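Technical note accompanying the year-one report. For the benefit of new consortium partners, we illustrate the data format agreed upon in the data management plan: each record pairs a sequence with a structure-token string. No post-processing was applied to the example shown here.
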Amino acid sequence: MAGFRSLARQVRDPRCDLALRRYSLRKCLEKFAPYGHRATWDHLCSRAGFGPEDRSPDPARLVAALEELEEARDVWLAYETDFTERRRKEKHDGLRRPGSVDDWHRLTWGGFGVAWCDDPRVHPEEPLAEVLRRLIAALEREPGSSCPVCAGERLVWRYGLDHEPSSGPVCADCGILVPRPVLSPRVLQYARRERLLMSA
């Protein structure tokens, strides 16, 4: 199975058939898709200016979408390298039990679904790399009271998400499943209560 870099080379290669170049970009999302496959594809298409069902997009637009994905992947891989180094140091220092950020991180290793969007048409509008920078910054500070991506405060607990975890606080503004470790216990409790009020 081809890796991300070899797929990216095919997207850029003008000697490749346009259908293969588009297919290779889609396959890149099997390796790295911060919002999940469908929502990340929708995001890249809208930002690069071609339709999700467009079978023959402008090759320059395909490359623009790839470049946005690559920049975000570089941001995430740097975070994972730092994370691994930190855990190694903690283990060396005798801290064997991982914390809540570590539990969350284990579910998102490789960058798939780190800012999961259950509805593929509802996702942040900012570049993927910027979204990931905001998310990482939130993971590295004390838990807050709003969405780390858009600063929205309308967080609603949703069940039956097509992701692991299958429930959690979803930002009603940008659509991401907000990682629990970035929210205070009070805000998590409030989001659960909002869910109960909405279903009553």
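Partners are asked to follow this layout when depositing records. Strands lie at 155-158, 168-171.
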